[in-house]
Amino acid sequence: MKKALSIAGSDPSCGAGIQADIKTFARFGIYGLCAISAYTVQNSTGVKEVLHAPEGRLYNEIEYLLRDFSVNSVKIGMLGTKENVLAASRAITEFRLKNVVLDPVMFSTSGFRLLNKDGIAPLIDKLIPKTLLITPNILEASILSGIKEITSKKDMEKAAVEIKKMGADYVLIKGGHVKGNATDILYGREGFTFFDLPRIKKTPIHGTGCILSAAITAGLALCNPIDKSINEAKTFITQLIKKASRHGRSNTYYLI
Q: How far is Cα 34 from Cα 214, in angstroms, rounded to an integer?
């Protein structure tokens, strides 16, 4: 059975983070492993508090797992701190991890900061160059690329080019917050590829970024090429959005 490792934060409402990643891996027939970077206090209304793993803990989690298990792909989500960014980078190098998908989580849907400011520089300098694919949303793409306003497909293309210069093999800019169809733009050695699907009007939705990147990671674990992995992940999440439901007392939709 193929295996994938998720390095991310814990979401006790189970709509995003580690819990959503493991659920997603299972849907694709992948055995999921996890290393927890942070514990959050949150529910369907938003994040109240974050407790980051102490320095050294995240690397120890990963190292002990990989002494025992071989993994076919890795998804990295919320890291929270500079120390955790460096721990993930170190693990990729020391264990020669392949098929690394980085979802550069910086803020929650409700606006809570999930990556400390001092974590951005090592993310750019140490972690992004070691990834196969980075999957920023519009806000994250703006922060990474330095493009202040991303409001169109052309802006997304420019941001993808700038982020690709940081060393990732591929950049997938998620267009969920741009008007029009839900178009994601992939940029890599073959140029641009557009993944265009009709927008489904359900908001707010919890966990779309986590689940999309986890689904791509699952596809890569199955040895699918990157374009097929992304296309199948997009189809998967579109079906989830169509069936999304509310579980808490807020108006937030959950997917999985």
A: 12
Cα 80 → chain centroid: 13
Which are the contacts of 126, defined by CB distance < 8 A and separation ≥ 6? 85, 86, 89
Structural domain boundaries in the chain: 3-254
pLDDT in tens, 181-238: 778 999 998 999 999 877 777 778 889 999 999 999 999 999 999 999 999 999 999 9
- 142 SS3 class: helix
pLDDT tens digits, 91-113: 999 999 999 999 999 988 777 88
Tell me how far apart the alpha carbons of residues 31 and 24 are, in angstroms, rounded to a whole number. 10
Domain 3-254: state its class: alpha beta
Indicate the pTM of the whole model.
Answer: 0.95
**Cα dihedral value 57, 59, 63, 65, nearest 10:** 60
The residues near 209 (Cβ < 8 Å, ≥ 6 apart) are 16, 103, 105, 135, 137, 174
Is the sign of the CA dihedral 246, 251, 253, 254 positive or negative? negative
CB 58 within 8 A of CB 85: no
Alpha carbons 117 and 226: distance in angstroms, whole number: 30
Q: What average pLDDT does the chain have?
A: 94
